[in-house]
């Protein structure tokens, strides 16, 4: 045994008496402790006077180290008495007390350690046990503790009149558990939000499990549930199974719904959560989530199944048809598997039994479900992807036979480390096959080569040169069945070739202004290209086209590959930025003029067509960390009418904020995805009274008949809104939410939905 004896200034360590009194009012009064030990806002104990945590413990070994202000050894009684800020450590266990008596055992017998006053013992896992008097074996592992408080790593606290510890097992009599604060910010005692009282509590450190016998759950000191048997994991459990906290929902079409989730942990790499839902207005449903971590990567399966009544619409779109009770459900599978250093699979499958199931059961509001699988090969120089896509339309107007199956879609991009005329070479290819059971089928194959070189002149101009050559081959079948004739091709094989050369010059000017740094960057781009054939070729992936600030200087400003912008053009614009402390302003404005061609491959109203394009721009501003504003717009080239007006505004911080998004499209285009509309989205969150939060969001359709004759509304029309209030402190969360849907679809009816959520932190996780 090594004895280290040296005097040093005393710093008192106070026992958690306030916590003990709050957990067990009948327990004996101990010395007052610093309130922070009970973890008001910080459950992991940041009090400077707190006992040494796991990170400061000595490494395991056979030696026992003593530190104390005074040390007395009675050889006759075989008794070592240490007083005054005593610290004892052995094999990863650390003991702190006002007084420690160590009585050596007879030959072959174990000794005994008795700690008295402000006692705290920390085990190798970091858990802290505190009490008035602790009797331990000389290994510091086993013993009895009077008026004990056990502080767990996750912030939970166990208090008891008396307890014993045998190895890694604690047995507590007339005990209570709670992670909640028992003192307020002023250090005054308060009743914890919730606690579990029990005649006996067992804590197994090895299994990371806390078990109760004859327990009751108290809220603000009032018993609310009797729990004959209960167990839950501690915060260090790597995995655990059991019941999770139920949820309550009230929906118009489902009635009152109550869930009772059960989590099953089968091992460190896979688990399953089953959530039965009981409804008052329809049949029960079962939701599930399964996760598995394979050697190559993770896979997750989500879903919900039930048997319930389903309604559909007759061909006239008005009359409802009762289809009786049917099997209904949703399945989602996603994962990412890394087969080797270069090969991986990425997949996502989303399937629903019918159009309205997801909305009816609150799983989402998507009008199309996308499923995909991609096998990818990635190296330092190349990227190869072989993928498949399937789309399930959920709108009443969607017809299953017109949904495309893309199989396969192949993309290849090779960027070799070659220098050609001072520039870099890129080579690529694409192949796509689209089949429909009742619609247009298409096969496409193309290859391209691109050369880029950039340089910086002595005057500061940045010049980029680009050359591009591409060849396409198409085969179209059943073009007469195309859903939208504007996007149809012509049956048979056809090909096209295209080439362009471009030079892009920008010249930034920077200098001080308004207490900050401003930069003005004029930019000019010349693209020389012959006329490209687009008529007769199908348009499957370049439909939602519109001139925007982000695509103004693209070589091909049409999205996708099925449309290629024809002819030569000159694009010009300028960027501006002002940066100063706590303030940023950025703006961009530009336009293009055609030198050949008329842009007839694009519809009128998209901003491309004609000799002159519309004017597009963007303004972005940040004011500290509280205000962020972005404004995107497109102005008509003839009369400067606003054809696109998009505003995003966020004011506030992380806990309290308000955001608004407004968009108006005034393009006079009636093609799919390009109809004119107005929409306003609002969202906000307000934190108040320390633990309370109000939140809400809403979607409002402002489209009028003047904007779009096909609009279902005429002005202010709610789509969906949600409001709620939530309480959350260090140990408990409670929320009430209200959602109203204004737009229905067959058996998904407009109406109200209410949700109540409760979470006892450290329980049911």
Notes on the protein architecture:
This protein is an all-beta fold. The strands form two sheets. The protein has a 26-stranded antiparallel β-barrel. Strands 1, 2, 3, 4, 5, 6, 7, 8, 9, 10, 11, 12 and 13 form a 13-stranded mixed beta sheet that branches. Residues 1-21 and 25-61 have low confidence and may be disordered.
Query: How many helices?
Result: 2
Poorly predicted parts: 1-21, 25-61
Look at the structure and give the mean pLDDT: 85
Q: How does the overall form come out from the CA principal axes?
A: elongated
Radius of gyration: 35 Å
Number of strands: 43
Helix content percent band: under 10%
Gap between N and C termini: 44 Å
Sheet with the most strands, sense and barrel status: 26 strands, antiparallel, barrel
Kindly name the structural category.
mainly beta
Strand content: over 45%
Features:
43 strands, 765 residues, mainly beta, 13-stranded mixed beta sheet, disordered N terminus, single chain
Sequence-ordered SSE layout with sheet pairings:
Elements: E1 2-3, H1 17-23, E2 65-67, E3 70-74, E4 79-90, E5 93-103, E6 112-122, E7 128-137, E8 143-151, E9 157-166, E10 169-178, E11 194-204, E12 209-219, E13 222-233, E14 242-243, E15 247-251, E16 255-259, E17 262-267, E18 270-279, E19 285-293, E20 298-313, E21 320-338, E22 343-352, H2 357-360, E23 368-378, E24 382-393, E25 405-414, E26 419-420, E27 423-435, E28 441-456, E29 462-477, E30 492-506, E31 509-513, E32 516-528, E33 569-580, E34 583-594, E35 615-623, E36 627-635, E37 642-652, E38 657-665, E39 677-688, E40 692-701, E41 717-728, E42 732-741, E43 751-760
Parallel strand pairs: 1-2
Antiparallel strand pairs: 2-4, 3-4, 4-5, 5-6, 6-7, 7-8, 8-9, 9-10, 10-11, 11-12, 12-13, 14-17, 15-16, 15-43, 16-18, 17-18, 18-19, 19-20, 20-21, 21-22, 22-23, 23-24, 24-25, 25-27, 26-27, 27-28, 28-29, 29-30, 30-32, 31-32, 32-33, 33-34, 34-35, 35-36, 36-37, 37-38, 38-39, 39-40, 40-41, 41-42, ...
């Amino acid at each position: 045994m090594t004895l280290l004896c040296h005097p040093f200034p005393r710093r008192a360590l106070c026992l958690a008496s306030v916590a003990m009194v709050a957990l067990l009012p009948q327990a004996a009064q101990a010395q007052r402790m610093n309130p922070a030990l009970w973890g008001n806002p910080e459950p992991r104990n940041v009090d400077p006077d707190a006992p040494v945590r796991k990170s400061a413990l000595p490494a395991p070994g056979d030696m026992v180290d003593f530190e104390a202000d005074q040390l007395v050894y009675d050889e006759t009684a075989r008794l070592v008495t240490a007083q005054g800020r005593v610290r004892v450590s052995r094999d990863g266990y650390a003991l702190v007390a006002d007084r420690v008596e160590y009585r050596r055992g007879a030959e072959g017998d174990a000794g005994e350690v008795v700690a008295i006053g402000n006692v705290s013992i920390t085990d190798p896992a970091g858990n802290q046990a505190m009490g008035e008097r602790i009797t331990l074996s000389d290994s510091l592992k086993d013993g009895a503790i009077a008026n004990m408080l056990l502080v767990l790593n996750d912030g939970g606290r166990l208090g008891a009149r008396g307890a014993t510890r045998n190895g890694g097992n604690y047995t507590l009599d007339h005990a209570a558990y709670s992670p909640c604060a028992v003192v307020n910010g002023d250090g005054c005692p308060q009743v914890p939000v919730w606690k579990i009282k029990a005649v006996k509590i067992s804590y197994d450190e090895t299994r990371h499990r806390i078990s109760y016998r004859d327990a009751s759950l108290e809220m603000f000191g009032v018993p609310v549930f009797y729990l004959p048997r209960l167990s839950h994991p501690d915060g260090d459990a790597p995995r655990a199974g059991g019941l999770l906290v139920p949820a309550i929902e009230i929906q118009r079409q489902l009635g009152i719904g109550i869930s009772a989730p059960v989590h099953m942990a089968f091992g460190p790499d896979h688990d399953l959560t089953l959530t039965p839902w009981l409804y008052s207005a329809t049949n029960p449903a079962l939701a599930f989530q399964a996760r598995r971590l394979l050697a190559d990567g993770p896979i997750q399966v989500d879903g919900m199944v039930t048997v319930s009544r389903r309604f559909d619409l007759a061909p006239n779109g008005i009359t409802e048809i009762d289809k009786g009770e049917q099997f209904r459900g949703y399945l989602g599978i996603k994962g990412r598997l890394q087969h080797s250093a270069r090969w991986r699979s990425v997949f996502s499958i989303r399937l629903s039994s019918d159009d309205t199931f997801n909305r009816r059961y609150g799983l989402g509001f998507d009008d199309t479900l996308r499923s995909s699988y991609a096998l990818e090969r990635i190296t330092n120089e190349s990227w190869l992807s072989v993928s498949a896509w399937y789309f399930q339309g959920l709108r009443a107007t969607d017809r299953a036979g017109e949904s495309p199956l893309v199989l396969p879609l192949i993309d290849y991009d090779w960027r070799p480390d070659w220098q050609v005329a001072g520039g870099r070479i890129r080579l690529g290819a694409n192949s796509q096959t689209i089949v429909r059971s009742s619609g247009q089928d298409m096969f496409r194959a193309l290859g391209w080569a691109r050369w880029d070189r950039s340089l910086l002149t002595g005057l500061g101009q940045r010049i980029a040169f680009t050359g591009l050559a591409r060849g396409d081959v198409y085969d179209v079948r059943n073009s007469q069945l195309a859903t939208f004739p504007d996007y149809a091709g012509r049956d048979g094989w056809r090909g096209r070739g295209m080439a362009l050369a471009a030079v892009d010059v920008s010249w930034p000017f920077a200098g001080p202004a308004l207490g900050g740094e401003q930069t003005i960057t004029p930019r000019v781009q010349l693209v020389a290209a012959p006329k490209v054939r687009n008529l007769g070729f199908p348009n499957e992936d370049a439909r939602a086209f519109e001139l925007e600030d982000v695509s103004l200087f693209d070589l091909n400003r049409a999205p996708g590959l099925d449309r290629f912008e024809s002819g030569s053009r000159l694009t010009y614009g300028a960027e501006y930025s002002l940066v100063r402390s706590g303030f940023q302003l950025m703006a961009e404005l530009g336009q293009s003029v055609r030198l050949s061609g008329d842009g007839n491959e694009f519809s009128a109203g998209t901003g491309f067509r004609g000799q002159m394009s519309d004017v597009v721009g963007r303004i972005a501003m940040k004011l500290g960390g509280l205000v962020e504003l972005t404004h995107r717009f497109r102005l008509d080239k003839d009369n400067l009418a606003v054809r696109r007006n998009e505003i995003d505004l966020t004011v506030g911080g992380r806990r309290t904020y308000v955001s608004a998004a407004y968009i108006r499209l005034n393009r006079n285009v009636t093609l799919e995805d390009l109809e004119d509309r107005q929409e306003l989205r609002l969202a906000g969150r307000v934190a108040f009274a320390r633990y309370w939060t109000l939140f809400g969001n809403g979607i409002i359709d402002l489209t009028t008949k003047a904007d779009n004759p096909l609009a279902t509304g005429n002005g202010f029309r709610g789509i969906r809104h949600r409001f709620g209030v939530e309480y959350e402190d260090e140990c408990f969360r409670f929320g009430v939410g209200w959602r109203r849907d204004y737009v229905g679809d067959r058996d998904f009816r407009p109406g109200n939905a209410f949700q109540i959520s409760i979470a006892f932190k450290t329980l049911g996780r």
